[in-house]
């Protein structure tokens, strides 16, 4: 039963898998250790806050059996397909051919068009943080004199 204005579990599941597979498809081919940890943390946190309690509990169990592999973009995409198939087994849905995962899910095209702007923005933020650290170091030196 869906409360008026609510979302049913099928709709929630489709939207969730679209998001997760797109996340996996855009994960760096050679992520830094920090990026790998961030994805692992996100997936753990995601499984704790997912708005369908039985789904979240099931997903946590699957993640214990099949630990997150975000060591490369392709491995994360394959991991995502594997865990999606584990969910589908539990709920009696057909399994996906993980060899063809890139044909089913990929990069958000409208998002990719803005990637250069995002890269420029991230560079600006990094330079601002570095400048802030330099200012902070200079201020500490001044105050200690």
Could you explain how this protein is built, in words?
By secondary structure, the chain is mainly α. The protein contains seven helices and no strands. It has helices at residues 9-25, 33-49, 53-65, 73-91, 101-104, 109-112, 115-144. The longest helix has 30 residues, at 115-144.
What would a concise description of this structure say?
The protein is built from seven helices and no strands.
Secondary-structure map:
Blueprint: H1 9-25, H2 33-49, H3 53-65, H4 73-91, H5 101-104, H6 109-112, H7 115-144
Helix pairs in contact: 1-4, 2-3
Averaged pLDDT: 84
Helix-strand topology string: HHHHHHH
**Gyration radius, rounded:** 20 Å
Quaternary organisation: single chain
Low-confidence stretches: none
SS strand fraction: under 5%
Largest sheet: none
Please tell me what the overall shape is.
globular
**How many H/I helices?**
7
Q: Which bin fits the share of residues in helices? A: over 70%
Distance separating the two termini:
69 Å
Overall strand count: 0
Q: Structural class of the secondary structure composition? A: mainly alpha
């Amino acid at each position: 039963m869906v409360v008026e204005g609510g979302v049913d579990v099928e709709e929630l599941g489709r939207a969730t898998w679209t998001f997760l597979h797109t996340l996996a498809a855009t994960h760096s081919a050679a992520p830094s250790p920090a990026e790998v940890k961030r994805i692992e943390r996100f997936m753990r946190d995601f499984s704790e806050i997912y708005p369908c309690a039985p789904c979240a509990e099931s997903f946590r169990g699957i993640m214990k059996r099949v630990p997150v592999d975000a060591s490369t973009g392709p491995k994360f995409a394959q991991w995502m397909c594997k865990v999606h198939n584990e969910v589908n087994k539990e709920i009696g849905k057909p399994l996906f051919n993980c060899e063809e995962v890139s044909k089913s899910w990929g990069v958000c095209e409208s998002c990719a068009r803005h990637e250069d702007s995002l890269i420029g923005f991230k560079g600006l933020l990094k330079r601002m943080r570095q400048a802030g650290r330099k200012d902070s170091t200079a201020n500490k030196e001044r105050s200690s004199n």
